[in-house]
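Minutes, project check-in
Item: structure for the 207-residue chain
Input as provided by the requester:
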Amino acid sequence: MLKIEKNEYQGIRYLLYYPKDFKKENKYPVVFHLHGAGSRGKDFKEFEGSVILDLLDKEESPLNEAICVFPQCQNDTWFDSFTELLNLVKYIYSQPFVDQKRFNASGISMGGYATYQVLMSLPKLFNKALICCGGGMYWNSGRIKDIKFRIFHGEKDVAVYPEEARRMYARLVETNADATLTIYHDCDHNCWEKTYLNLDNLKWLIS
């Protein structure tokens, strides 16, 4: 079993998963994941059914080799506690067991929007990001041009229109960022199941 801690930092509760055979003197890649609106609340039971969480501790999962951080939004949106969220990112980044060259982000829907904004606020901290059905201030894409991206969206999504992903991707390409865009033509809002169940995406994220 992976070691798991339930922690709180400046009012943000989060789950912290340690990799198998964790040794505090070693350094590990990090996946800092921001969930969507459906997991908001004050109980980690709201995380039940999360695809990325369900992958943890499965033998074939690349996430078993990483530190995985899952904060929970207790407000209406991540932006209601954004300063505290940034402070949590910096706190995790500063831990001695973190490989700062492999500090990576992941986010879906509401968490995808927040992930883009976290990256724009702290661009020097992150190496890679995987975004599902999110969007952001694409006119500020120059701030995150040195981060590697894999962006995913469902063509049939009416909760967050796929144009959000296309705009951000187009602006990143203009800045010569290392970015890819995958549009699932048979998919609606929930594009994250296909994305995370493709273990190649997770291998890429922590490599």
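Outcome recorded: Helices lie at 51-55, 82-93, 110-121, 163-174, 192-197, 199-206.
No further action items on this chain.
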